[in-house]
């Protein structure tokens, strides 16, 4: 069996492993209440909800149009 001539550096080893670690494509998670793209296990930045409950109330910068 051929053997590697030199040891791979720690950074090279890390690069190889990190390429498998990265999530490919778009964010896999979506907010259940507003549907925005949210990273998994994170509170939604749009509506501040997590697992269907509002954890962090949203900051309202603009006044919403009230519809009846
Ligand atoms: Zn949301």
Characterise this structure.
This protein is mainly α and 68 residues long. It is built from one helix and two strands, in the order αββ. It has a two-stranded antiparallel ribbon with strand order 1-2. The longest helix is centred in the N-terminal third of the chain and has 12 residues. The radius of gyration is 22 Å and the shape is rod-shaped. The site of zinc ion has 8 residues, from loops.
Q: What's the short story on this structure?
A:
Helices cover 18% and strands 6% of the residues.
Please give a handful of descriptors for the protein shown.
single chain; 68 residues; mainly alpha; two-stranded antiparallel sheet; 1 helix; 6% strand; rod-shaped; binds zinc ion
Topology at a glance:
Blueprint: H1 10-21, E1 49-50, E2 53-54
Antiparallel strand pairs: 1-2
The structure holds zinc ion (ZN).
Residues 31, 33-34, 36, 44, 46-47, 49 line the site of zinc ion.
* SSE arrangement, N to C: HEE
Q: Order of strands in the sheet with the most strands?
A: 1-2
- Low-confidence segments, given as residue ranges, are none
For the largest beta-sheet, the strand count, sense and barrel status come to: 2 strands, antiparallel
Please give the radius of gyration in angstroms. Answer: 22 Å
- Our measurement of the CA-to-CA distance between the termini, rounded to an integer number of angstroms, reads 76 Å
Briefly note the structural class of the backbone.
Answer: mainly alpha
What helical percentage do the residues reach? 10-25%
Average pLDDT over all residues:
78
Strand content: 5-15%
| Distinct ligand kinds | zinc ion
Separate helix tally: 1
Shape: rod-shaped
Number of strands: 2
